[in-house]
Design brief:
heterodimer; A: ABC transporter involved in vitamin B12 uptake, BtuC; 2 strands; B: Rossmann fold; four-stranded antiparallel beta sheet; 10 helices; globular; membrane (chain A); amino-acid transport (chain A); Branched-chain amino acid ABC transporter permease (chain A)
């Protein structure tokens, strides 16, 4: 029982990274129609930035949780203004290629600067070690990651459901042309939405920093799983991204515990099964399959 | 109010509209009748600014809006009631109403919308697409009325609805006309068109082939039905 709970918390912590990043990916796809292939690289940049901030300025995790998303938002805005915006009118494939190329460039730049061995990262003392909850001993950091991510997901959900911006994001995700024809200036939201999505990927990276090896390549495998998450949840579905993120984290953790050789394959088996039963994903609308 | 002169439109190499001229006056209800593939939907998409491969001019309220993006046309007072009604599944009924920005001081308040369409008030918190087809059509119309649009472009509002609902839609269109709002109605239902409109254009193969007033339109109903192949 104890072991099962431990794997569950480990899975939910890993799922937190997927959930946050997939949330960003879903929002970007919804409003821009761009499948942001560079999302894994943005996640990696978030982790690397946190490590560099700790190393050079002595900024702890608490500060990085605040500063890195802001920096990544600015970075996302610059990327959107410099590159992405010019390709929005063309076939979505162009932005897919652009962000793929951007991934290669970012990964190589980080390799040049910080090498291929992992950067060290220690969380603040209070998050180290284990905590005993009702007789079960669990790693404090994993609990923190899970709770923090759930809080962020709830905040984003409130933003999506209770504000006018959220309404516009939902509307233009569902019917982009009609939303414009109803007088909503969707173009005005494109840049901040891209920045916001990149910031979420960066935030996932910060949370992953003490938990994963911080290397230039850490985003590559992450990106592949992330696309499985998005397919499972339903492309463009915000709730789907979060639920599928945690689900995939759990499958991964239990897979690693009980069938280590099949851990990664399990995720894609799950993806294939869900596509068979619900082609639009768990929370995708049926129109998406047309 | 709306002046369309020599409007041409293409899909790649294929020309869909060959110099369409039409006009809609203030407080006028005008229908555009034509069979499937005549270019009706293309024409609406040109007017609303979603089809960009065009020639000719479109002027609205005295301004040339030919190159204007869709959201600015809506803000200038054009309200689109899409043929599939365009109700958002991910938005509640009330959010569907509140999404488009107000564009003039003729804008209806939510209270007025709910008074005119009580069914929408009852279902305000429900997802938009849980409404019946007729209710969704009311919502689509109410949505543009709430913005204070000056011209409604209605694409086949009677399609797929029960006769009693079609009659209700007709009554709403006549009420809209009373308030001085203009309507360009795209229809295949000739009988319905004759009950609401002042004038009619017949569109065939991307050209306006006839412009008729309502009495003439009624007199030639049989011939028009034949033309439409109904």
């Amino acid at each position: 029982m104890n072991a099962v709970l431990q794997y569950a918390v480990q899975g939910l912590a890993a799922g937190s990274f997927y959930a946050l990043a997939a949330l960003g990916l879903a929002i970007i796809f919804g409003v821009l129609g761009v499948v942001n292939f560079a999302h894994g690289a943005f996640y990696m940049l978030g982790a690397v930035t946190a490590a560099v901030l700790l190393d050079t300025l002595g900024l702890t995790l608490w500060w990085s949780l605040l500063a890195v998303p802001v920096l990544m938002f600015v970075f996302g805005v610059v990327v959107e203004r410099l590159f992405v915006q010019w390709l929005l009118r063309l076939d979505p494939l162009y932005n897919f290629l652009l962000t793929f190329g951007l991934t290669l460039v970012l990964v190589e730049l980080v390799k040049q600067k910080y090498g291929v061995s992992g950067l060290p990262y220690k969380p603040p003392g209070i998050l180290q070690g284990r905590a005993e909850l009702a007789g079960v001993v669990l790693p404090r950091y994993q609990l923190f990651v899970f709770l923090f991510s759930v809080a962020i997901c709830v905040l984003v959900w409130l933003l999506m459901t209770r504000t006018r911006v959220g309404m516009i994001v939902r509307a233009s995700t569902e019917k982009p042309e009609l939303t414009r024809a109803l007088g909503v200036n969707v173009g005005r939201w494109v840049t901040p939405v891209f920045g916001f999505g990149v910031a979420l990927a960066g935030l996932a990276g910060v949370l992953a920093a003490p938990f994963r090896a911080i290397t230039a390549d850490m985003g590559n495998n992450f990106a592949i799983i992330l696309f499985a998450v998005v397919v499972i949840g339903g492309l463009g579905s915000i709730v789907g991204a979060v639920v599928a993120g945690f689900l995939v984290g759990l499958v991964e953790a239990f897979g690693q515990a009980y069938a280590p050789t099949f851990a990664q394959i399990l995720i894609f088996v799950l993806m294939a099964l869900i596509i068979l039963v619900r082609p639009a994903g768990l929370f995708g609308r049926e129109e998406a399959t047309r | 109010m709306l002046e369309v002169t020599g409007l041409r439109a293409w899909y790649g190499e294929a020309q869909a509209l060959h110099g369409v001229n039409l006009s809609v006056g203030e407080g006028e209800v005008v229908t555009l009748v034509g069979r499937n593939g005549a270019g009706k939907t293309t024409l609406v998409r040109c007017l609303i600014g979603l089809h960009r491969q065009v020639g000719g001019t479109v002027s609205f309220l005295g301004r040339d809006i030919t190159g204007m993006p869709a959201h600015r046309r809506a803000r200038a007072g054009m309200g689109w009631v899409q043929d599939d009604r365009g109700i958002y599944a991910g938005l509640t009924v009330e959010e569907n109403l509140l999404l488009p920005p107000k564009v003039s001081d003729r804008a209806w308040t939510l209270d007025r919308v709910y008074e005119a369409f009580p069914v929408l008030a009852d279902r305000r918190k429900a997802p938009g697409t849980t409404l019946s087809g007729g209710e969704q059509q009311m919502l689509a119309i109410a949505r543009v009325l709430r913005t204070g649009a000056r011209l409604l472009l209605m694409d086949e509002p009677s399609e797929g609805l029960a006769p009693v609902v079609v009659a209700r839609i007709g009554a709403i269109i006549r009420e809209i006309k009373e308030t001085g709002v203009s309507v360009l109605l795209i229809e295949q239902n000739v009988k319905f068109a004759a009950t609401v409109a002042d004038r009619h254009y017949l569109l065939s193969q991307g050209r306006i082939v006839e412009a008729l007033d309502n009495s003439e339109f009624r007199r030639r109903e049989v011939q028009l039905l034949e033309h439409l192949g109904i």
